[in-house]
Amino acid sequence: MKVPLRWLKEYVDIDDIPLEELVRRLTFAGLEVAKVRYVGVPEPGGASGREPHLAWDREKLLVGAITEVRPHPNADRLVIAVVEYGGPEPEYCVTGAPNLFEYQGKGPLPQPLKAVLALEGAVVFDGHKNDGSLMKLRGRKIRGIYNRSMVCSERELGISDEHEGIIILDPDAPTGMPLQDYMGDIVLDLDLTPNMARCWSIVGVAREVAALFGRELRMPPDDFSPTGPPIEGQAAIRIEKPDLNPRFMLGLLRGVKIGPSPYWMQYRLRLAGMRPINNIVDSTNYVMLELGEPLHAFDYDTLYRRAGGKPPTIITRLPKPGEKLTTLDGEERELDPFTILVCDTAGPLSLAGIMGGLESEVEDTTTNVLLEAASWDFISIRRTMKAQKIDSEAAARFSRGVHPAIAERGLRRCLMLMQQTAGGEIASGVLDEYPRPAPTVEVDLPVGSVGRLLGVDFTAEQIVELLSGLEFRCEVKGDVIHVTVPDHRMDIGSGLIGQFDLIEEIARLYGYDRFEGTQIADELPPQRGNIVLERTEMVRDALVRAGLQEIITYRLTTPEREALLTPPGARSDWPDVEYVRLANPISRDKVVMRHTLLAGMLDVAASNLRYREHVAFFEVGKVFIPCDAPLPDEPLRLGIVMRGPRRPESWLGRPDDDASPMDFYDLKGVIESLVEQLHLPEVTYRPSEHSSFHPGRAAELNVSGRNVGVFGELHPLVCKAFDLGDMPVLAGEFDLETLIGLIPATYKMKPISRYEAIRQDIALIVDEAVPAAEVEAVIWEAGGQLLRGVRLFDVYRGDPIPPGKKNLAYTLMYQSYERTLTTKKASKVHAKIAKALERRLGAKIRA
Amino acid sequence: MLDQLEALYREALEALEGASDDEALRGWEREYIGRKGKVTLMVRRVGELPPEERPAFGRRANEIKRELQAAFEQRARQIEQEKLARELESGAIDVTLPGRPVQVGRLHPSTQTLRRIYDIWAEMGFQVYLSRDVEDDETNFTLLNIPPHHPARDMWDTFYTTRPGVLLRTHTSPGQIRAMREFAPEPIRVILPGMCYRYEQISARSEIQFYQVEGLAVGHNIRLTDLIGTMSDFVRRLFGPERKVRFRASYFPFTEPSLEVDLDCILCGGKGCSVCKHTGWLEIAGCGMVHPVVLRNGGYDPEEFTGFAFGMGPERITMLLYGIDDIRYFWGNDIRFLEQF
């Protein structure tokens, strides 16, 4: 909502209030001033340089009076305007402005035309460029005639883009006055929240300003003398859906002359962001901006003709099947069954409250105008506006709610302005169908309720003073204030909600900057903590300690992207379930909620390969699995992706820079570190044949007998599908909720022996098929109390080990908590282990 | 013979001066004071002297032996020191060369900011409550006092799913309803972090997915001034004690009164710049007193209970803290971005 200050000042006196203070108070009160536009007046602190800006030179840009328009001796499309401005001699301006041509060669004008005169040296916008560049007027010959000054268009002054003709000011513009003094202005651009429907008008804003500064609001005049015959009998109204159209009014003005509206009106429309059309349409728009009531003017004679030469009946109703309407913008529109229409007996005339129809609009030849002022159900308007994708000024207001009382004020004010600007005779009386009168809202506000919510106690007098400023009628009855809501407000409820609504008004007008903060005095709720979050953060920390970088990817993806996790032709091991699918996706690569973290993570890994060889990522996040309930399961997952050289390249060279690619065991180390840091009990690993992984290089992680995820070397075809290069890619995905559920609440420290340990090595040859985990399990079992550590230090295949076999070498550590162990004792246990390995695994002990 | 001994003593001392390394030193030791060294042999010849001269010779011989031994030890220490000094000198390295790379893991900047937010609120008694991403229309809008077709719905561009009435949450506020329904009629102090979604073109300033942290306090005596005090404390804890905080009127359907929390612009110090859109202030959070309709929908009698709620964006906060000018970095996961935090 754009608010020119000169316009605002018609309704409230604020000349003594510094702009900065006005902006601050409005912003604090919820009318956020998003931008301040300086039109022709200097910007305080100099131009910010954000937008082209021009302060009109008070010496060189003046109101001028064109006393004569002479033909140009050498050019048909140019004329010479003789402009008086209070100087000793008139200025002679060569101009091509088409709106002066009609005065050409008519000698001295009986009534001079007022215009904006730019004298030599004035700086104006370059009208030919229209790119915000400025130019300085210099004397030069135009087609043989010396010219040093000019009459300006709106574009040249930075008012609008208009450059078709020059500005013709109103006749009462004082000749010689600096333009800046005559019409320099400041426009506040307000960002209004949806609850501020009442402020979508200058008067609405003026009312807030008046309340904030304790001033009086002056309403614009709407008095006129109806001299025409009564409107009754010349038109009629029929409302079919009163819930959608609580009120409909008509006024009639006969004998108008269509033409441009006066410049003051055009100028204000421009500053408010609208385009002037003609005196009738401009009057309706002006009143809409002024009072907030959108109006519509019909060509009465068109309606008369459509009614078959009879007085028209205006009908508001829903569309009939297949009905269409061509709107003002020339579009033929299919109508939804919920769209309320303004019609006559011949068919639809306009999209109610949103946009007029093409056929019945006011044209240059119009002489009789039927003026509509109505109120509409804002939800209905909003639905149509969305469905038809129209964002008109009228729809903006009606879709936020306009009180039916404003219709009457708008109609009267507009009839007055139309007559003032287009002449004619106003029919006496108006037609007013008001089947659903808006109830008067009354709220009983206990004085104590204000302090209860705000934390600052207000007296009844303070409350009454604040609310009265916004035209709430207040009556103090003991501890309760009986408040009657004024009839331009539709945002105040009744009962308890009404009380909250009023308390907000009190706080807002009082000013939030005046509230001192306090500490919460209320009792502290039970402190339970959040075990899921705490443990999720433990997992994050553990992985960071293991050297991994956390990433966060999009939770939206496509089924096709996730399908790349399964090699072509293979049967997928990912759950075969539906996706949570978007009904209105915004881009083709984000249409469903993910089933897995891995697809997104691999994409991130691939995109980073351009900068880094080595990546080691983890992500903690939800996946989305539809189920029988209306809302999907949202299990938490942990994903890991690693790839690249084991150690980064440095100047140190080998062996520091281990450039060999990370493999399964790098990832396994990370998993082991995680498991250890979380103190997970009973952890085992089993070979896995998950479809996304290398068939021989993947494992399932089991904790306390539960499978919590799979990890390993990604299948080469999957790497290829994700464009991950040649090195092996290590990846894993884990069911985080199950995993963190298995983290013990606490654990016991293992005692540390004070006695010397004895280390003995053992090497054994077993079948390839025997997993190392099994060998280790047998060692631990046979080792008993004294075995304290098992460390695998070599795995060897090849000569002299027979094919199909492998040699495993371990260092075993023996230690007692009670005494220093003798070698003899240790050797006894060692032998027992060797025997167990031979017996249970068919191992051949080598040392 | 004493003269010979004295001469030998002088010769030995002179020779010791010339011994400049371990080897020469050992040679000197052998030559003079070893078992078959010249001094040792000369001393043994004491028997060749007449008996009356023997004590004097013996005294002097012992003296000389002691002194030579001491001189030898001193020289040995000296040589060792010189050797160490030479070694240290030649062992100097270029300390300006880079160190061995350490592969460090890091948390995503959003997680880092979330943790700072959790920590500050935890100290004020606010615990974390987690809620779902995929929501129903009822909880995301209607129960929060945003009925269907209400103009306030324009404030959120929504992703709907193909299942009617199911959508991606546009804010963490539906968690308020879920928390209230779980805890009523206990008093509540929670924060609700989570991923939210908006139907928006991805650009430097807007993302389709973003974290939000909602806060909710409900009790018998929660007041607007409590909200102002608590939010001011939070903002200053996060951005620094010297920061200015202001509250101004705003609108959210689920709070009344509703306020916007502004922080004086960290970049320009309030003078006005492009980040603060030349206002000198940065919007940092929205907040307000819980609307009576929302309290009632959550299972609290609004005549008896009051509450406040607030919401903020960790990505926006992170951007302001570190001068990040493009929100797309967050889910872009460019390692060159991530490793800076």
Can you offer a commentary on this structure?
The complex is a heterodimer of chains A (847) and B (341). By secondary structure, chain A is α+β, with helices and mostly antiparallel strands. Chain A is 26% helix and 27% strand. Chain A has a 7-stranded mixed sheet with strand order 29-32-33-37-36-35-34, with helices on both faces. In chain A, strands 13, 15, 16, 23, 24 and 25 form a 6-stranded mixed sheet that branches. Chain A is elongated, with a radius of gyration of 42 Å. Chain B has 341 residues and is an alpha+beta fold. A 7-stranded mixed sheet of chain B has the order 1-4-5-9-8-7-6. The termini of chain B are far apart. The chains are: A alpha+beta (847), B alpha+beta (341). The interface between A and B is large, with 102 and 96 residues.
TL;DR?
The complex is a heterodimer of chains A (847) and B (341). Chain A is α+β, with helices and mostly antiparallel strands and 847 residues long.
- What structural class do the secondary elements of chain A suggest? alpha+beta
Query: So, the CATH homologous superfamily of the largest domain in chain B?
Result: Bira Bifunctional Protein, Domain 2
Number of helices of chain B: 12
SSE topology string of chain B: HHHHHEEHEHEEHEEEHEHHH
| CA(first)-CA(last) distance of chain A | 91 Å
The number of distinct helices of chain A, counting runs of at least 4 residues, comes to: 22
List keywords for this structure.
heterodimer; A: 847 residues; alpha+beta; 7-stranded mixed β-sheet; 6-stranded mixed β-sheet; 22 helices; B: 341 residues; BirA Bifunctional Protein, domain 2; 2 domains; two-stranded antiparallel ribbon; 9 strands; rod-shaped
